[in-house]
Amino acid sequence: MTKFSDLALDPRVLQAVSEAGYEIPTPIQAQAIPEALKGRDVLGIAQTGTGKTASFVLPMITILGKGRARARMPRSLVLAPTRELAAQVAENFDTYAKHTKLTKALLIGGVSFGEQDKLIDRGVDVLIATPGRLLDHFERGKLLLNGVQIMVVDEADRMLDMGFIPDIERIFQLTPFTRQTLFFSATMAPEIERITNTFLTTPAKIEVARQATASTTITQALVPLTPSRKDRSFTEKRAVLRALIAAEGAACTNAIIFCNRKMDVDVVAKSLKSHGFNAAPIHGDLDQSQRTKTLDEFRDGTLHLLVASDVAARGLDIPAVSHVFNFDVPSHPEDYVHRIGRTGRAGRMGKAFTIAVPSDDKYLKAIESLVKAEIPRGALPEGLSLDQDDGKSDRPRAERGGRTRGREDRGREDRGREERAPHKPREARAPEVKSAAEEKPAPVAQPREEPRRDRRDDRRDRRDDRREHGGAVVGMGDHVPDFILQSFKISSAAKARIRIPNPRTAPMADRKHMAPHRGASERLRLVEVRTAAIPAPGD
Ligand code: AMP
User: Fold this and answer.
1) pTM for this structure?
2) Whose CA is nearest to atom 1 of ligand 1?
3) Distances, alpha carbon 22 to alpha carbons 56, 78, 343, in Å
4) Domains detected in the chain
5) Four-point Cα dihedral 193, 198, 202, 204, nearest 10
6) Residues enclosing ligand 1, CB less than 6 A?
7) pLDDT in tens, 394-419
8) Closest Cα to residue 249, out of 445, 443, 438?
9) Which residue's CA is minimally distant from atom 23 of ligand 1?
């Protein structure tokens, strides 16, 4: 078996690796390090958790050990899609380069340019950056990339998801074509393949695990829930989540709870807190200091439950997570593998629960076909009472932005480029202040008196509204979004004054404002046509 000492690494690096407690390289390290040390380009197809960060950091430190940095001209560049991932690479660099004199700078959003400029001015050996912030520095004329000898692209598939590929291409073009490139991606989408064909030169291709392999140390369970009413799905899922966590008891030492939408991350975290759970949210709309604080608390055990979006949590290295709860079934099957891969790391045991409602069926099929196995079905936790509420009624679907495709949550995490979903968590009851002794999971939600009264009042108001607007809306239950209640009827007087243009014969310039196609819903068509109405002559 290969040992680190068999690899031609700098003795100072070997010492740091040994101090970190590692003796045997992981498969990606054993294969990638020798190729990188030969100066070859490397294409690593590997996920987080495989030790891929050290597979590029260790040879980089060894190679860079032989030269000196010049002002504003970094000698190497590592690009990561999110601030957290970039910070994680920087931590790895600090660990493994501690016996060398190499310098680094971390360029990420949410940190002042001034401090970063100072570091770059002094000259750095390793620049670790998110693509947007790096280009900002470049465009401000503070940074030259023509001294880059080694360029690393980490989590390229994530870069693709977040729309960073044009930035990556641009950065490639700004660096010398003689550079060495180490490129890592968990999957090889066609776009990623195109980039590697364009910018890598006869790379050593190293693939360590199938893209859809879930670790065998993870026990998976699918918890099917048929909500008592469609509009209670969100509420009842929260009750199931609480009951699942409570049923796991002390075995659940810490957990990541995944939601598909940022706004749900906030609501679920608030709801858990109000039930005495030690929970906090993390997603791209929170400011950087908040995200860092939450992650630090989760890592050091102060925080028990991290409620997260995919973007915020994917790729994070938190070695000991006992449980993963999928509050929502991910709509992209590969996210399932990434999510549950947060637990059961480094040979530890882990459990992953997924709450599924009937409308998730198609996503489940896609997941099961990707992982080529059926996720074992589990029962609803014992003692669960879905009658009980947590005082937070479901929002109308329209208010929540409708059914999203999961990727809505994948706003860019970089500076100023994040998807700024108009996220405004609903008012929740202020969490009760509990003493440490009381702060234990409540197995089942307690009924809340006051909010029930409020909701009845709301319903009465809505019923009155509906009467005013000419009767009930079939199939909408009590939660009829206000915009549906608005009348789009055109008065006969108005009809007489407008001419509805024919999309086939209207001038091209007008056509783009018209009803998108004949199959479009009548309501949409009516609204579109109203905007395209052309005043009749003489109007
Ligand atoms: P990564 O895939 O780079 O996120 O690494 C995942 C985890 O594996 C990190 O906590 C590393 O510290 C750890 N790790 C890296 N190399 C080794 C190794 N050779 N043996 C055991 N664990 C490792």
Assistant:
1) 0.57
2) 51
3) 16, 23, 20
4) 4-207 (3.40.50.300), 218-391 (3.40.50.300), 485-532 (no CATH)
5) -40
6) 22, 24-26, 29, 48-54, 317, 319, 346
7) 554 444 444 333 333 333 333 333 33
8) 443
9) 51
